[in-house]
Amino acid sequence: MADDSPPQRLILAHTLSQWGYEVELAESGLEALEICRASPPDLILSDWMMPGMDGVAFCRAFRDQFDAHFAYFILLSARGDDAAIAHGLEAGADDFLTKPVSPEELRARLTAADRLVTKQRDLAAKNRQISETLEKLQTAYASIERDLGHARRIQESLVPERMRDFGGARVSLLLAASGHVGGDLVGSFEAAPGQIGFYGIDVSGHGIAASMVAARVAGYLNDRYPEQNIAFARGADGGYALDPPETVARRLNDRLSADPGIEEYLTMSYARVDLKRGVLELVLAGHPRPLLLRASGDMQFLGEGGLPIGLVETVQHDRLTVPLRPGDRLLLYSDGFIEPVLPSGRDLGEAGLRDLVASVPAGREGPAYLDTLFETLQLAADAGGRLEDDVSAALLEFRG
Questions:
Q1: N or C: which terminus of the chain has fewer CB atoms within 10 Å of its end residue's CB?
Q2: Short-list 267, 288, 256, CA closest to 203
Q3: pLDDT grade, residue 382 (50/70/90)?
Q4: How are strands ordered across the β-sheet holding 184-192?
Q5: What number of CA atoms fall less than 13 Å from residue 232's CA on the CB side?
Q6: Does any domain span residue 150?
Q7: Are 391 and 385 in contact (CB under 8 A)?
Q8: What pTM was computed for the model?
Q9: Do residue 50 and residue 164 come from a single domain?
Q10: Whole-number Å distance between alpha carbons of 367 and 356
Q11: Which whole number is the average pLDDT over 205-231?
């Protein structure tokens, strides 16, 4: 409390003490400001007219110096006209009492001030808690962003080459995750000259869990370590050959079904190609039907689906055999290619994919062909070019 009148200070100090307040006394605004610096108060009573720094100047200085600390400021003055009250409130005062002060009115004003100070203190505490929580969340988010960025780089390393040339054919790959990481996977390998395999996989779900399963499957279908590749069979001469596609699907299903830590399943298209004979053998495990593009210009969707991998313990997939002629192409793709919703409200579907393929300019080959197809899909699905699902594809171009 600041007042240059000793009697007035003593009377108000005695009254406030009886009401349970701890009171600090000052006889001028400057002295009161020094007390506030030592211990910022919750409630200030200040006379208007004081030597040196008056109550209005004290109020303004307090608000300037303690803007982060809320205190309820009441000005006391013998003047009660509207102009004086407005001047005091503009300086930062919260309330105004005319002297001599009525004890009943003072107590009522202080009770109201107590409620406001308590609410303000609670709000400040909650704001601090929110700020601390936000800071922790931002730290956690930054850590997650770093981890996801690293995971994305790892996933991209699973497809180190977008195109592999096997002499009689080449395989090009496209992998575009809808988020940081995804559950799609494409790849190709060669067991022996003239015998290649390539595949497209889509793990159920999205995000980290799906990407981890995809990474695990990539280890099962990696020709850098042929002894670990489930598609490879070791011959008597120590060389390798590719097992039938249905055998590869069964082995992969057995591995995923036997692992209690994996709840996800996956769809797959897997093909074995004999480049010397021009024969492609294919199994479908719940994956969209591959599109065969004949050199003549004819298009044909192959197969009828089949059960996904890892959904049931025992499963049998049928093999589809397709003769290839020079210039033929086979496109394996995930459902991200046919499920986007068009502006008309319908799914793209196989018919829409056929139209997209037909729109690719002549002469586009390899990765450029897949990139053009993907860009056309983005434009067809959404003006913003955003797709909600992972998109992947593997393109075989057979030379003969």
A1: C
A2: 267
A3: low
A4: 184-192, 195-203, 266-274, 279-285, 320-323
A5: 21
A6: no
A7: no
A8: 0.68
A9: no
A10: 16
A11: 86
- CA dihedral (160, 163, 168, 169) in degrees, to 10, reads 120
Question: 388 or 52, which is more confident?
Answer: 52
* Averaged pLDDT of the chain: 89
Structural domain includes residue 26:
yes
Helix (H) or strand (E) holding 214: helix 207-220
Round to whole Å and give the CA distance between 211 and 222.
Answer: 16
Considering its fold, how many domains does the chain have in total? Answer: 2
Structural domain contains residue 180: yes
What does the alpha-carbon distance between residue 351 and residue 64 come to, in Å, rounded to a whole number? 70
pLDDT digits (tens, 9 = 90+) for 106-125: 999 899 999 998 898 888 88
Residues forming beta bridges with residue 293, ordered by sequence position? 299, 329
CATH number at residue 200: 3.60.40.10
Bridge partners of residue 394, in order along the sequence: 173, 332
3-state secondary structure of 187: strand
**Residue 349: which region, alpha, beta or left (left: phi > 0; alpha: psi -120 to 50)?**
left
Q: Is the dihedral of CA 275, 323, 280, 159 positive or negative?
A: positive
Whether 383 has a pLDDT exceeding 50, the answer reads no
Tell me how many helices (H) and strands (E) the chain has.
9, 16
Over 60: is that where the pLDDT of 192 sits?
yes
Domain that holds residue 58: 6-125
Q: Which two structure tokens, joined as six digits, stand for 73? A: 């400021």
End-to-end CA distance of the chain: 99
Alpha-carbon distance of 129 to 123, in angstroms, equals 10
Q: Of all residues in the chain, what percent carry a pLDDT higher than 70?
A: 96
